[in-house]
Design goal:
mainly alpha, globular, 14 helices
Length: 321
């Protein structure tokens, strides 16, 4: 296996893991607490990584970590959940699947990665494949839900691009950078969760096991692999791994929850998976303009879907992180 293939395979484990979120949420967690779930995924994982690495940001990286944490986690999760509540899961997943197109545009603007016709066609094919997997006949559209879904996808896409642009400071590993972002994102979600949902619910042993999986495997390890992959792949290649999340969610739903998986859904999986593979054929060394590490104040122009992120955290058809 080539070095790039190994990087792609490890990075792909992140969206595959995110595809298990719906199953864990419905089978192990208390109902109707999406923001609390987002908080329990992000903040404990971030604090754990901070304790393991014993590294804190310095200088401009306090601001950069806050920006990346907000884009990849703090803004992404609440917007994603708003879309999940106001849209059927399939519609939410399709809206989120435009993330690769956002990444193509942002990468051209901030990274100097010039989009090619093949990249654009691959991104469109991925979104089309996801729509076949998750979109149901007669699905309803809600303007607020669609807007929230597009903004969540834009937030995650901007997170991918700025993670790629800023890299990480010298002497700091990807694990520490992941901890910074998860902690910052969790702190953004914390007040929103308590204002919207109130005090935490009483938790059973099953609930705690579910949250432990989400915080450790589904978040700490998965985001580490995701951010590590972004460093080594082009932004478009990384984000085109996103369709693996709804594909995984559909397969788990079929195997574990008895959900129907017909010929159209299988065709969509083949198209989305083919687009994912085609997205990895980009040059291993893209033309980019990485920003050198800075020590002065951070300046921000607004980067988990789709990668994402996304696959949705609540709905049957398109769950993500």
């Amino acid at each position: 296996m080539s070095r790039k293939a190994a990087v792609v395979a490890l990075t792909a484990l992140a969206p595959i893991s995110w595809g298990s979120t719906y199953f864990v949420t419905t089978e192990f967690l208390p109902p109707d607490r999406p923001l609390f779930t987002g908080l329990m995924r992000a903040l404990p994982a971030g604090l754990l990584l901070l304790a393991l690495t014993r590294k804190l940001p310095r200088g401009a990286w306090w601001g950069k970590s806050a920006v990346l944490g907000a884009l990849n986690i703090g803004a992404f999760f609440p917007l994603l959940f708003l879309a999940a509540y106001r849209l059927p899961g399939g519609v939410a997943a399709v809206v989120g699947s435009v993330g690769p197109l956002f990444v193509v545009g942002l990468a051209a603007l901030f990274l100097g990665e010039r989009p090619t016709v093949r990249t654009l066609l691959t991104a469109v094919a991925a979104a089309f494949g996801v729509s076949l997997v998750v979109l149901k006949a007669g699905a309803a559209f809600d303007l607020i839900g669609v807007g929230a879904g597009l903004l969540s996808s834009l937030s995650m896409s901007a997170g991918v691009v700025f993670t790629k642009r800023w890299g990480r400071p010298e002497g700091v590993g990807a694990l520490a950078l992941t901890g910074w972002q998860l902690t910052a994102g969790g702190l953004v979600i914390l007040p929103i969760a308590f204002l919207v949902e109130g005090a935490p619910p009483a938790l059973t042993g099953t609930n705690l096991a579910g949250y432990a999986y989400l915080a450790l495997g589904n978040t700490a390890i998965s985001y580490f692999l995701w951010f590590r992959g972004i460093e080594r792949l082009s932004a478009s290649s990384a984000t085109l791994l996103g369709p693996l999340s709804p594909i995984t969610a559909a397969v788990i739903g079929w195997a574990a929850l008895g959900q129907a998986l017909g010929p159209v859904q299988v065709l969509g999986m083949v198209i989305a998976f083919g687009a994912t593979l085609a997205g990895q054929l980009a040059p291993a060394k893209p033309h980019a303009r990485p920003e050198p590490a800075a020590t002065g104040p951070v300046s921000f122009s607004s980067t988990e879907q789709n990668s994402q992120e996304v696959s949705m955290d609540l709905e049957v058809s398109g769950v993500r992180r």
